[in-house]
Amino acid sequence: MAGISKDIKAEIIAKVKAGQKVADLAKAYGISTKTIYNWLRGQVKEQVSMGNTNGNEETNNLRQILEFSH
C-alpha cells in the first residue's frame, strides 16, 4: 500500500508478532485488517523463498496468525 510508510508497516507487523490483535491495530492505524493480513502473507512468502521454512519459529507463528484470519 503506497500510502503507508515502510516504517509504519514494519511497526504494525512487529506488533502483530508481539501478540497484538490485527483488528485493534487496523482500527488504531486506520487501515483494513485485510491489508495487515496481506502484509503477513508477504512475510511468510518472503521467509519461505529465502529457505526459512517449517523449522523457523517466526514463520510458523505467522502461519498460525494467518490461519485465524479465515
Can you put this structure into words, describing what you see?
The chain is mainly α and 70 residues long. The chain has one domain. Helix 2 packs across helix 3. The model has no long low-confidence stretch (mean pLDDT 83).
Describe the structure concisely.
This protein is mainly alpha-helical and 70 residues long. It has helices spanning 6-17, 22-29, 33-49, 57-67.
Number of distinct helices: 4
The SSE string, one letter per element, is HHHH
What percent of residues are in strands?
Answer: under 5%
**Can you give the helix content as a percent range?**
55-70%
Beta strands, count: 0
**Main beta sheet strand tally, sense and closure:** none
Q: What do the pLDDT scores average to?
A: 83
Rg of Cα set = 12 Å
User: So what's the overall shape?
Assistant: globular
Low-confidence stretches: none
Give the domain tally: 1
Structural class: mainly alpha
| End-to-end gap | 21 Å
Key features of this structure:
single chain; 70 residues; mainly alpha; 0% strand; globular
